[in-house]
Amino acid sequence: MDTPAVVxxxxxxxxxxxGLAATLYTAFDPVDNLVRMTFLDPAxxxxxxxxxxxxxxAVAALRAAAGRDPEDRRLIEVxxxxxxxxxxxxxxxxxxxxxxxxGGSKLLHHPRIGDLDLHYETLTVNSAxxxxxxxxxxxPGSPSAEGLLLLRALTP
Length: 156
Known about the structure:
alpha+beta, 5-stranded antiparallel β-sheet
């Protein structure tokens, strides 16, 4: 596959990712939960060129997931940890904004490739409720498409 792809669970835990996605996320340690990474990993502030928007979108999507299953233990754990460890998460969580992640743009900065302007699509996994496949793509012929080719060259 020539695009980064990741499978996440209801609480945005990373369940699987292809080699290109692993290389895309090399600045993070660990690559374990997309929302947790956004708020608790210092690399997120550089990786997300528009961190405020990324943080807002992550919280709104996590709140949407919590609305679908408010008793989900993992969701409760993630929200609890982030509420205790990130005042920014707590502030955004208190706004009660809800929207799912179906598609959109990501403005990213990879430490070796540079800036990437990617479009993502989120696809539900019908046989596994709550799981989503997130696929990132660049506009053909764009500098970001060239960046993904460079990323491919860095992928083991």
